[in-house]
Each structure stands twice: as structure tokens, then as C-alpha cells.
Amino acid sequence: MKFKINNRFRAVLGCLLAVGLLFSTPSFAFQQDSLAQDTAVSATADTVDEGEADTAATGVVADTTAAEGEAATATTTTSSSSSSSSTVVDEGPQIDPQVYKNMTYYILLFLIVCTVVAVVGKVLAIYELTRKMNGKYNPFANNTFQSVLLVIFLVAFLGFVYYGYAVWGDWAWRSAVTEHGERIDTMFIITTVIITIVLVLVHILLLTFPYIYRMRKGTKAYYYPHNDTIEKIWTIVPAVVLTVLVLFGFFTWRSITNVPEDLQKSAIQVEVLGEQFQWQIRYPGADGVIGKRNYKMTTPMNSYGIDFNDKHAWDDIQASDIVIPVNKSVRFHIISKDIIHSFYIPDFRVQINAVPGMTNYFQFTPTMTTEDMREKMNDPKYDFVMLCNKICGSGHYNMQKKVVVVTEEEYKEWLSTQNKYFTEDLQKEFAAVDSGDSKEFTTASLN
Length: 447
Ligand SMILES: [Cu+2]
What we know:
This protein is α+β, with helices and mostly antiparallel strands and 447 residues long. The protein contains eleven helices and ten strands.
């Protein structure tokens, strides 16, 4: 008899293989598991024995010597030896529960889910077929069912939107602690109100129309190709709203960033340099002017690349944190050493990019000290933080600096304790370069 491998046979074979794999995978894993446990137990058995012997011996010693007042040392040895033996037992190889769930497991799980869906589909098809045969089939029943589902979804969706605003809104919202921050918050609230109205209206229309206009017995679709009025409304209204929002944003941004020149000069200056993956902070020192920087001057010692030919740089101060006085205008000079980073202090509503080759400025006035904020938040460890807000590489997540807002007296005191950037070693390096050929310096620094 000629044996022919037909399709049905192949399907059965495939199923058997899949079922076999399904059962064998966890048992393999179980074998590995018990094997590993066996070796772990035998490996630790010796050390446990020793530990127990020690414990027993010192335990006896402890008992006998306790009465003689030597208990302290004896008990400490007991406890240390027993704890060491217990840690040995704990350190036995831990079996990762994921060992049961390798790739085959997930593939088989997927196949099972597919099979279940297919079976349910077939059962439903048979059910429909029997109804048709009995003359009970209503072709519009599914339309009503689907549209009712959409209405139920709408109610749940609106409930979640309400919940989101009422319960989570508070978590996302914290008042700004800078003067200009209030203007940004006003803009944010107006935008949120407008988009919430649009969100609710659009969803009500989108999800109730399938129910109101569902196909029913005796209804006929109405052909309605064009309506000028409706098209004008849905073009002009969003255009006007968006124009108003964009202009509002534009003027707000201008009012924040266009600072009169005299106010620019009277502010406290701070330079922030972004690089992969850290921030460097420089204060101008007693002269109030930040010294020039030139990337060609970068050396291992002068990693900031400060140009000491500019005497303003001599008294510059390098700080580890950003410390600024409350209710004083501070002007940040934001620069980058390598690629684009972003200077972002969420509590202050401050964000501007740090772009290599140019300086961006952001001037603002903090209105609350860190201490006051901690009291307000009821969190004694709360800190303002400046983050990099441009995904700039693998260490991006760690590019942050603490921002401390203090009173003016505290600020002056803090500033007086900070170290100058132009250290004695740097002075020596600068003097050596100055006396030599300046060209040599440039090439050496570039290599
Ligand atoms: Cu960055």
C-alpha cells in the first residue's frame, strides 16, 4: 500500500509536535532547576556543616562563660559565625522564574490564543447558520449591538476624562515659582480648556452618530455630498482659534525673552555649559562679567575651554550646583560643548536649548526659596532641579543639576565659599603657554 503524506496528516503531525514541545519545555526547565538546586545544596552542605559545628561549639562556650561575665565576646562570635553560615545558604544559585518562559513558550501561547479565537469564530458562524435555517436571522441586529457598544465606550471614556482631570490633574499641576511662570500657566490653562471642549464634543458626535443613524429596517441612506456652510465653519473656526493661540504664545514668549538692556546688565549672570553627559556652572566672580570661552583653548586641565587672555575670566567661579537668590533677576547664558542639549527647570517654567556655537539666554526671577517650597510641598527633601530635555545620548537621563533658591544673604555667603576656576595649576599652564609660541598651544590642545 502506497503511503501518501496528505495535508491532513501534516496538520496532525504539526499539532502533535507543538503539543509535545509545549509539555517538554517546562519539564526541561524543571530538570535544569532541580539539577541546579542539587549542586547548590551539595556545594553549601560542607560550609553549612562547618558553620553549624562552629555555632554549636561557641554556643556551648557562650553558655558556660556567660555566668563568668565573658558573655559579650562569646555571643558576638556565635552570632557572627551563625550569620555567616546563613548567608552562605542564602547565596545558593537562585533560579530565575523566567527560565520556564523562553521563546518557545511565547510562540506556543500565541498559537493557542489563535486556536481559541478561531474556534470561537467557528462556533459563532455555526450559531448564525442555524438561526438562518430556522428563519430567525435579523441582519440589523449586529448594527444595533455594535452602535450600543460605541455608546457604552463613550460613557466610559467621558468618565475617564473626568477622572483624569479631577484626580490626576492635581498631580500634574504645580504652580510656577517664577514671575514669568504665571503667564505661561495662563496660556497652558486656556489651551487645556479649549482642547478639552473640542475633545468632548468630537467624541460625543463620533460615538453617538453610529447609534442615531444606524441601519434599520425600512431606512434608506441619504446622499448628502456637500454643504458649504458646514465646511466654512469647520475651516474658519479652528483657523481663528489656532491663530489666536499661536499669537498669544508668540507674544508671551517675546515678553519673557526680550529683556531691556539695562535689566540684562543688572541681573546676576550665570553660565551653564552642557556636554555629554553633564552640566558645568560658571559664575562671573567679583567683576560681574563672565570671561570669554574659546573651544580651541580646551586642555585636559582647562576642560571648560576658558580663555585666560581675557582678564574677566581670572576671577570666575566654578560651582557644583546652581544657587540663586530669591526675588532677584538671574540671566542664564546657555551654551553647549558638543551637541544640542536643553536647559529645563520645570518648576520655573524655563526651557531653552543649549546649542553648540551660539549662546542662548534665559532671564527670570524666582519667587520662592527652596526652603519655602519644601514647607509648601510638605516634603523636607524637595529640590528644584534642572534637567537636560533633549535626548542627547546614553547618559541623557543623568544630566541634571540641583537648583537651590536662597535668600540674598545666604547667596552671598555661598558665593564667597566657592572656588575660583583659575587655579594655581591652570595659572602655571597659562603662564607657560603665554611665554611660548601661541601656535604651539593651539595645535597641542587640538590633538
Ligand atoms: Cu543632554
